[in-house]
Amino acid sequence: MKKIYFFIVACLLSLPLLTVAQDLDPAVVLADTFYAAADYTVPSYSEFLVAKKAAVADPSQVNLQALVDKVAALKSKEDPYNMVATINGDPKTQMAFAWFTNDSITGGEVQIIAKENATEADFNTQSVITVPAATKRTKQMRYVGICSYMVVASGIPVGAKYRYISHKALATGLTPGTAYSWRVGYEGHWSDIAHFRTEDDEQGEYSFIIMSDSHIESPIYIKEARRCALAAVKTAPEARFCCFPGDFVEDGTLANSEWEWERWFEEAMEPVIKAMPIVPTDGNHDDSPNINYTYHFNTNNYFNLEITNKPQFDGITYSFVYGDVLFLVFSMQDYWRESYDQYTRGWSVYLTDHVSYWFRKQTNANPNTRYRLSLSHYNLFSGSDHSTDDDPPLFRKCMLPTFKDCEIDVALQGHDHTYEVIGPVDPDSLTPIMDAISDREQVPVNANKNITGYKNGTYCTDDGTLYFIGATCGHKRYYPHGRQRMENEYTEDLSILFDNKHHNVKNYFDLFTGMFGQPEAPTFTKITVKDDCLEFKSYTADDDEGNVTLLNTMRIVRTNPHTTPEVREGMEAPVIIKNGDKFIQNGKLFIRRDGRTFNGLGQEIK
Question: Is the peptide bond before 522 cis (omega within 30 degrees of 0)?
């Protein structure tokens, strides 16, 4: 046996690629015929390269077996990968799909059958819904970016770029309340089978899950995110969809790594992807001129089509109604794309005009839903390392009037990687509405895991929004800022507010009315829409077998019906401040000179 393994290594040292006989038992001698990388899918070949390099460096029994396993897992270049279903339009009758193939593989369709847990044989015997895919050749996409793990592990150089074919299909005319199985590809080259269920005609109680911030960059991040995905599917097999508000990957901007996206689909989130649709929006780490997000997801793009100065990605701001809940999925990441003043007036045309108008339009069109939930990556309020970032004061100034007028019950947020229950917050005074809270359990304070000493509870959102951050499904973790630290970070002085060390929320710590801390494990939350409440049950994923620990339980209730906000094309523009004008902001005097802003001491505010 060892001789055969060492023969494999010898071949690998002298030749770049290999193929083997159909029987891949280690006892079978590998054939000495070699092929090009282009004969295999990018994901399977990359995994093979990692195993190959490890076996060459250390020909141990474990590494050699891993290499044989990866040879067995090599997939034909025609096979699809990175597949996902997304909610796009009416979830009673529609479902959208997206997937990748290697460059030049342009054929493909999605096949759907009305059967739960269908097998491959079912697709040959059942009535099949077939939807051809629209295809688009991607840009040249940087594959490994600056990810030191993959560069070292595979030998693929930092500058390597690949193109792909992005496939998208939208199935319409589906039957409400029906379990479906689906696959993508074409004859002889089908994906694995995945599943979803359409919304019922008269939707009663149902559940969905939320997890965020996987930050895929190395094996430990992949492992912990997959652990969370497995636990979520095992704990909530009935869940209808999974909300994922951004930071899928670690390396964004020009250093972007498509390998990280690949691992999100192919490994980390595979258990969830096969079980239910995803409800995504982008995070700051997903930012990239490669527009990976646009290629990978097939979500409603009406918002982008209605505005002139469009955001970076398609389908990051969209809405849908499911049962008794209006979901408002939106991105604040492109606030700078039109006229804005972050540092003095807190104004962004993109947010205050376009996003606010869109919020009002959606809530006006759906006045009778019992709950209104927003889903975004960035935070309006948070209590860890992102609480002192430059942009939250702008986000609060632009979006709090919208949240107030649209009566948003719960803001589901990502970005801060800590478990945080905030509010309900009075949008005018920025204070917690304490008489809206009941049934909290008092527990011992823990400086990391629960700094408030509260858990569970019931929160009424009649007069304010509850802000929720469910920690991270991955490995990258932040820790809570305590009361004294938050007090030290508070300032009204605009000359230091934007130094990434300060915030402008007085008595900030008081807003944290429930559990607040770092679970120190991958975390997800199951949200159940019940007749009398939204029930949140948060869990940590404890192992690779899907075992969990219940972290926190809370109920969100609303007793008053929503009102309908006014819809207008643009919000009232701020007063234009000209050179020589003096003005007051947050009780401080400023003056405008030569197109720049100075405080009363003559210091420029940048």
Answer: no
CB-side neighbour CA atoms (13 Å) of 15: 14
Chain centre to alpha carbon of residue 145: 20
Strands 458-460 and 194-197: unpaired
Cβ-proximal residues to 164 (8 Å cutoff; 6+ apart), any chain: 42, 100, 101, 102, 103, 137, 138, 141, 258, 295
Dist. CA 170–CA 184, nearest whole Å: 12
Helix (H, G, I), strand (E, B) or coil at 439: coil
Q: Does pLDDT of 308 surpass 80?
A: yes
Pairwise CA distance, residues 521 & 212, whole Å? 13
Q: Which helix (H) or strand (E) holds 540?
A: strand 534-541
Whether the pLDDT of residue 578 is over 90: the answer is no
Q: What percentage of the chain reaches a pLDDT higher than 70?
A: 88
CB contact set of 451 (below 8 Å; sequence gap of 6+): 445, 480, 482, 512, 516, 517
pLDDT band at 8 (very low <50, low <70, confident <90, very high): very low
The answer to whether the CB of 288 falls within 8 A of the CB of 141 is no
Residue 499 CA to its chain's centroid (Å):
27
Residue 440 pLDDT > 50, yes or no? yes
Give the pLDDT confidence of 356-368 residue by residue, as tens digits.
999 999 999 999 9
In SS3 terms, 140-152 reads as CEECCCCCHHHHH
Q: What is the pLDDT of residue 137?
A: 96
Terminal C-alpha separation, the chain = 68
| Nearest-angstrom CA–CA distance, 86 and 583 | 48
- Alpha helix locations (H) across 474-585? 483-489, 494-497
User: What are the CA-CA distances from residue 121 to residues 117, 193, 265, 479 (Å)?
Assistant: 12, 11, 25, 50
Which pairs count as long-range contacts for 11-15, CB under 8 Å and 24+ apart, including other chains?
Answer: 12/52, 12/55, 12/56, 12/67, 13/56
Q: Which residue has the tokens 């007069």?
A: 463
Q: What is the pLDDT of residues 489-518, one digit of tens each?
A: 999 998 899 999 999 999 999 999 999 999
Strand, coil or helix: 381: coil
Place of tokens 């000179």: 593
Residue 24 is predicted with a pLDDT of 38
- Of the listed ranges 28-32, 455-459, 532-536, the least confidently predicted one is 28-32
Q: What's the pLDDT band for 371 if we cut at 50, 70, 90?
A: very high
User: Which structure tokens are listed for 182?
Assistant: 């689906």
Please give the Cα distance from 272 to 235 (Å, whole number): 12
Look at residue 166 in the predicted model and tell me its pLDDT.
Answer: 98
